[in-house]
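Hi support team,

I've been running sequence recovery on a batch of backbones for a student project. Most finish fine, but this one hangs at about 90% for roughly twenty minutes before it completes. I'm not sure whether the input is malformed or the queue is just slow. I've pasted the structure tokens below so you can try to reproduce it. Let me know if you need the job ID as well.

Thanks,
M.K.
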């Protein structure tokens, strides 16, 4: 333990002497946690709409007014022909086209039926689906209002009552901030630990360490513990920003969050150290770490649910520690889950930590 203590003193001194590391550890996650949740918002609130009103009647104007009054649609143009409105879509100035045919009001009154045409730009599939659903729902509501005006009775409809649990305001930031916090912890832990041993190789101090009686596990622990401590500080900083900037207060146990964060950091730091033992230069280590962390991020369920992935992708997602920690943080922060409900994920993270650090220790070769 005396040898390990000296190694830790050396690592902490080396970290605090490097003026570039501390801003990278603390300033970068702070700025990113303030900016990324603002951009990573899948709520569709500004849908551009081009209207082709070939009727110019009272009902057509009422329909257009009702669509725009919802606040979800922004009118980009009123045209008299579909071809003219289509140019808005081709120029990326409109997401949807609503065409109201000539004789809309007359046919609706006389024949009690009329058709509308909606064209949707489906390049952005998510926006197209949601925007089309919004517009269809508004047209259906307008149809019910017309029928009520004529008959004095609303058509029979199923009354669906929604109960939104865990995120009653449906604020997308409440869902994204915990996941982005895990991502930042992964970036800080994975990249910095991946560059650690390689830096010793490049400046030539690794040979001096190799001729000492320091054991391999002591050397790896000496590299891991300082960044583990700094990672917990970053995690604390992230929870503070989530509380005071986004108003997200964890419903579950704070100590349980730190327990999982501690184990996860051991796993991700072990992964970085493993990369460092294989790499010969910092540039090589950085590219290898970036390659794997990018895969971890895209397969983790941060932006898209793992349930919607194909089977092979779900298997790959299951084999990454990031997936399990994102799920745990969201469950504890938003649902208030207890250890009994997340114990399986805890077991996975422990296995990842033991496997990755054990591999790093075995792969580190001392030469004299």
């Amino acid at each position: 333990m005396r040898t390990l203590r000296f190694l830790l003193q050396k690592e902490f001194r080396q970290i605090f002497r490097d003026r570039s590391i501390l801003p990278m550890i603390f300033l970068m996650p702070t700025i990113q946690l303030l900016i990324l949740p603002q951009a990573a918002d899948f709520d569709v609130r500004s849908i551009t709409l081009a209207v082709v009103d070939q009727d110019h009647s009272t009902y057509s104007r009422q329909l257009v007014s009702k669509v725009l009054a919802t606040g979800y649609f922004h009118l980009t143009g009123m045209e008299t022909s579909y071809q003219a409105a289509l140019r808005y879509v081709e120029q990326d100035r409109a997401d949807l086209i609503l065409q109201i045919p000539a004789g809309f009001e007359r046919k609706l009154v006389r024949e009690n039926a009329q058709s509308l045409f909606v064209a949707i730009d489906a390049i952005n599939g998510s926006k197209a689906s949601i925007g089309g659903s919004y517009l269809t729902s508004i047209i259906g509501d307008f149809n019910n209002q017309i029928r009520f005006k004529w008959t004095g009775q609303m058509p029979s409809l199923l009354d669906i009552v929604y109960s939104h649990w865990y995120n009653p305001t449906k604020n997308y930031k409440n869902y994204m901030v915990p996941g982005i916090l895990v991502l930042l912890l992964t970036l800080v832990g994975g990249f910095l630990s991946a560059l650690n041993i390689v830096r010793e190789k490049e400046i030539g101090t690794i040979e001096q360490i190799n001729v000492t009686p320091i054991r391999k596990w002591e050397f790896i622990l000496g590299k891991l513990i300082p960044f583990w401590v700094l990672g917990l500080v970053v995690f604390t900083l992230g929870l503070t920003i989530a509380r005071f900037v986004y108003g997200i207060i964890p419903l579950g146990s704070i100590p349980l969050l730190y327990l999982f964060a501690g184990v996860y950091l051991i796993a991700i730091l072990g992964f970085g150290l493993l990369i460092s033992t294989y790499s010969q230069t910092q540039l090589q280590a950085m590219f290898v770490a970036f390659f794997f962390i990018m895969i971890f991020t895209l397969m983790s369920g941060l932006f898209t649910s793992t349930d919607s992935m194909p089977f092979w992708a779900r298997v790959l997602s299951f084999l990454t520690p990031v997936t399990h920690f994102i799920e745990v943080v969201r469950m504890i922060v938003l649902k208030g889950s207890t250890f009994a409900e997340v114990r399986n994920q805890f077991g996975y993270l422990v296995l990842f930590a033991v496997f990755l650090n054990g591999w790093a220790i075995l792969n580190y070769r001392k030469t004299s």
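--
Follow-up from support: It reproduced on our side and the slowdown came from queue contention, not your input. The chain is about 65% helix and 5% strand. No action needed from you.
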